[in-house]
Amino acid sequence: MSKLSKLFAIGTGIAVANYYSKNPNKVEEHAEYVKRKSKDYYGYTRCMIRYTKKNGVEEAAIYLYNDLVKNLKKAKDALENKYNDAVDYGKELSNNITDIKEHVSNVKEYTSEVKENLGEAKKIVEDFKPSVELYKEKAMASLEKIKDQVSNIKKDVNESNVQEKVEDFANKSTETLDTVKERVETEVLNNTTEQEEK
Q1: DSSP 117-170
Q2: Residue 150: which of 140, 139, 138, 158 has the closest Cα?
Q3: What mean pLDDT is predicted for residues 132-140?
Q4: Do 51 and 60 touch, CB atoms closer than 8 A?
Q5: Neighbours of 52 (CB within 10 A)
Q6: CB of 86 within 8 A of CB of 94?
Q7: HEC assignment per residue over 158-184
């Protein structure tokens, strides 16, 4: 082996080791694939050796040729299918591209309308801003007046001793009711006793 082929072999070995050290789960998968292919190739080779012994070298060469042609046709058909699928996919993509272009133009139109509406909305907001500010100032002024009135009423209530007056009124009215009740009871009793005596 020449030095170049030895370096190539060593470099390949290092690359393979590096790949499998980074992807340890691929080792089993690739080992299974190699085993399967080795079995297939070994089985095919044994079959061809038997066929050659039985039918001769010329027949074996014709068989190999026919087998090679069959496999090439399979590969060609697979490539044609992939190519046809790719062509169909390309046609579909070109149709989709025209649809996408139409949608993009619709979106551009819609966006321009939204921009116009947004400009109008900004103008309306600018027009309403002074009115809103004025309303806010008036509302704040009214709120301050209400607060002042409430505090004045509280002061008046505290200064005029309304609570004491209410309690005094309640006590006096209770006393008056009690005296009226006693009078009524005595008069009713007197009237009932007078009526009984008659």
Answers
A1: HHHHHHHHHHHHHHHHHHHHHHHHHHHHHHHHHHHHHHHHHHHTTHHHHHHHHH
A2: 158
A3: 81
A4: yes
A5: 16
A6: no
A7: HHCCHHHHHHHHHHHHHHHHHHHHHHH
Confidence of residue 105 (pLDDT cuts 50, 70, 90): confident
Chain-wide mean pLDDT for the chain? 81
Angle, nearest 10°, between helix axes 57-159 and 25-55?
160
Give the Cα separation of 19 and 162 in Å (integer).
97
What is the structure's pLDDT at 73?
92
Angle at 93 between CA 99 and CA 101, to 5 degrees: 25
Give the span between the Cα atoms of 20 and 34, in whole angstroms: 15
Q: State pLDDT tens for residues 118-127.
A: 888 888 878 8
